[in-house]
Amino acid sequence: MARRAAARRRRTGRRPRPAGTRRHLTTPARLGTPSPGAQPRGTVILTESRAGSVAAALSRRKLVHDLVRLGVRPGTVLHVQASLRALGPVDGGADTVVDALLDVLGDRGTLVAYTATPENSATSRIHKAATAGLSPAEVTAYQARMPPFDPDATPCSTTMGALSETVRTRPGALRSSHPQTSWAALGRHAREITHDHPLTSHLGPASPLGRLYDLDARVLMLGVPMSRFTAFHLADQRMPDVPLREYHCAGPDGWITFKAPDLDDLHFGSLGERFLAEARQVTTGRIGGADCRLVPVREAVDLAEHLLRRHR
Question: How confident is the model at residue 8 (pLDDT cuts 50, 70, 90)?
Fold first, then answer.
């Protein structure tokens, strides 16, 4: 057997594969010349890999190391927008990520999360999708079943991510009172950030987001693209003639209606690209499987305002 394998190697020049690996094969399903750098259409690719290999879960210690390397410092006011799916497996899940963040920020730091509840609002895209196809009577019944907003008990939207809910439910966390766009915070400036949140300032200068600007906060975009950078709303509301719209949502004491600036984030993708092309204080790095950015709120909002005015 060994002599036959040796003879075959001499004829083909191929070495035997180690046990537990697969060959990298390309099998065209149809003939044709692909464009440069492209695989032929219908190609099946089997990548050689060790059988059973699994990425190691990130530890609290490793997260602390990587956060410090990215530029997070003790005493910082830090708003985190995170995709734990992009981050990858973590030993202890979202709780370990919050522990690591608090370890780095220390006793004088503040951890902040956006804990919005767009499902609570009859004027949100999420609520409209949930009630699409219902008759007016069915919509009325649907809204009647919705519980009132309770800052202490209402979970944040699943669209905010697991980390936001983990921050909200941490002992000592404080949450602002807005029934649509609340914020939660832990640490030194938590009360200052969350104590006052007018209905008419969802994400404006009088909201917790405005106080992040005042406190020279940083935003950790952990596996989240700039198209979802919440602080761009502050730049939007510096524009002249910001349109107002009517909002209808389930408040603490039942359904309420009020007028406030119209919120729109559909242009944040292009705005984020232009911001990154000119920003000077953003640091980048990789934590686990996530591409990360540490962004100063003031630079982001001021530069975004400049870019918006330039393109008006």
Answer: low
Beta pairing class for 110-114 and 77-82: parallel
Residues near 189 by beta carbon (within 8 Å), at least 6 away in sequence: 77, 110, 211, 215
Shortest CA distance to 202 belongs to which of 176, 221, 228, 174?
176
Phi, psi angles (nearest 5°) of residue 309: -70, -35
Q: How far apart are CA 285 and CA 222, in angstroms?
A: 10
Q: Please write the tens of the pLDDT for every residue from 44-88.
A: 322 233 334 456 899 999 999 999 999 999 999 999 999 999 999
Higher-scoring residue by pLDDT: 210, 126: 210
Q: Which uninterrupted H or E stretch holds 175? A: strand 174-175
More confident of the two residues 23 and 297: 297
Chain CA centroid to CA 284, Å: 15
pLDDT at 7: 52
Rg (CA), the chain: 25
CA–centroid distance for 293 within its chain: 11
Identify the CA nearest to 79 among candidates 233, 202, 193, 227: 193
Do the beta carbons of residue 182 and residue 199 sit within 8 Å? no
Task: Give the Å distances, CA to CA, from 13 to 7, 10, 24.
Answer: 10, 6, 16
Q: What is the pTM of this model?
A: 0.81
Q: What is the 3-state secondary structure (H, E, C) of 96-116?
A: HHHHHHHHHHCCCCEEEEECC
Q: What is the pLDDT of residues 233-242, one digit of tens each?
A: 999 999 998 9
